[in-house]
């Protein structure tokens, strides 16, 4: 099924546009199939053609338009981007989210817009998804653990959504709160305080590079990648990009963020990709680029993940060693 784009957030959506519940149930049975394969799926998939990656995802096509915010790097295969994930709500191993995230119910889904806004309200994710054309943007993704991927995300600039939300002039930060329903995520580890929370300074959130993503690889986001809606700020370490967002809060104070709260010396609020500021336990100078090869190459990490031209100006005058 093709999800149509366009329309406005204010407008309602016709029932014909809503994916029938049973289509979602069908999709879940695909995902259960993958679960049975477990970790083996990852290994098998390294032999091209042996394992069909469609088994682990929503398989729901999106209509997208090209974007000027696309990097020319070779893309990480879909099968790896959807089976090697961090989504701690579903377990701490990289293979856990693809196996466990089928329990997340992604419809109906609403996002609450709260805090310092003209009109606090709750919006349906399907309405949100149709607010602007979904651009296909190929972004570099650099995890703080020194691996990276190149992923085509489908979404529109977060700034568009913020424009719709109408924050008050006093709003200086945006906080993104992820879902934490125990019914859908029964085995959340105690490694972090839930719900997962992340945040950006308002100018960072308004930077056109900062994406609100509803899909990847031209399809609805697989649950393990943060369905139905997530943030992607490609010049920052991956953990800044909250998945499965249920609440967006505008604040005048720097919001609490999960990794910063759990280990403030290791994970700063800014977390801009910076090869010259090491993590206390490892170097950030290089990254393992996960591509189609069975033996990923190690490549130098670029300041701001290669997006310095577009974002460095936001930090002029700031000591990036202190504001890591
Ligand atoms: N809710 C939530 N969001 C999250 C995480 C998480 O554990 N929970 N992990 C983060 C980390 S560390 C990374 S690297 C990216 C991974 O996104 P991907 O699996 O789509 O590559 O999601 C980020 N967003
Ligand atoms: Mo990460």
The CATH architecture designation is: Alpha-Beta Complex
Total number of strands? 13
In DSSP terms (H or I, runs of 4 or more residues), the helix count works out at 9
Q: Tell me, rounded to a whole number, the average pLDDT.
A: 87
CATH class placement: Alpha Beta
Radius of gyration: 19 Å
Helix % is 10-25%
Q: How does the helix and strand content classify structurally? A: alpha+beta
Count of folded domains: 1
SSE order, one letter for each helix or strand = HHEHHEEHEEHEEHEEEEHEEH
- Give the overall shape: globular
Report the sheet-strand fraction. 15-25%
The ligands found in this model are: ligand MTE, molybdenum atom
CATH topology: Sulfite Oxidase, Chain A, domain 2
Q: What profile does the largest beta sheet have?
A: 8 strands, mixed
Indicate the low-confidence ranges by residue numbers: 4-56
Can you describe what's shown?
With 324 residues, the protein is of the alpha+beta class. The protein has one domain (25-315): Alpha-Beta Complex (Sulfite Oxidase, Chain A, domain 2). The chain is built from nine helices and 13 strands. It has helices at 21-37, 40-45, 78-81, 96-100, 125-129, 158-165, 202-206, 258-262, 308-311; strands spanning 64-66, 110-115, 121-124, 134-142, 147-157, 173-178, 197-201, 211-216, 219-220, 230-232, 245-251, 286-289, 297-300. Strands 1, 4, 5, 8, 9, 10, 12 and 13 form an eight-stranded mixed sheet that branches. The longest helix has 17 residues, at 21-37. The protein is globular. Mean pLDDT is 87; it is low at 4-56. Molybdenum atom (MO) binds next to loops.
């Amino acid at each position: 099924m093709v999800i149509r784009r366009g329309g406005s957030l204010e407008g309602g959506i016709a029932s014909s546009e809503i994916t029938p519940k049973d289509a979602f149930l069908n999709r879940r049975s695909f995902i259960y199939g993958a679960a049975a394969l477990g970790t083996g799926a990852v290994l098998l998939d390294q032999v091209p053609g042996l394992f069909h990656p469609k088994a682990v995802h929503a398989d729901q096509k999106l209509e997208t338009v090209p974007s000027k915010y696309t990097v020319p790097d070779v893309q990480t295969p879909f099968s790896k981007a959807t089976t090697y994930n961090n989504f701690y709500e579903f377990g701490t191993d990289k293979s856990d989210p693809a196996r466990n995230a089928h329990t997340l119910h992604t419809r109906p889904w609403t996002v609450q817009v709260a805090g310092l806004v003209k009109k606090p309200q709750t919006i349906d994710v399907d309405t949100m998804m149709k607010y602007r054309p979904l651009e296909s943007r190929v972004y570099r993704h650099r995890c703080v653990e020194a691996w990276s991927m190149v992923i085509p995300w489908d979404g529109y600039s977060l700034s568009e959504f913020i424009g719709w939300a109408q924050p008050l002039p006093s709003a200086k930060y945006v906080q993104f709160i992820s879902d934490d329903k125990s019914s859908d995520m029964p085995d959340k580890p105690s490694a972090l305080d839930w719900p997962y929370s992340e945040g950006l300074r308002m100018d960072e959130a308004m930077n056109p590079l900062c994406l609100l993503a509803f899909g990847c690889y031209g399809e609805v986001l697989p649950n393990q990648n943060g369905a139905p809606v997530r943030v992607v700020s490609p010049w920052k370490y991956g953990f800044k990009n909250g998945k499965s967002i249920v609440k967006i809060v505008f604040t005048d104070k720097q919001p609490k963020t999960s990794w910063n709260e759990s280990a403030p010396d290791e994970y700063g609020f800014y977390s801009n990709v910076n090869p010259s500021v090491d993590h206390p336990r490892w170097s950030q100078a290089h990254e393992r680029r996960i591509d189609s090869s069975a033996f990923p190459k190690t490549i130098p990490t670029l300041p701001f993940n290669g997006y310095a031209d577009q974002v460095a100006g936001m930090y002029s005058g700031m000591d990036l060693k202190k504001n890591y």
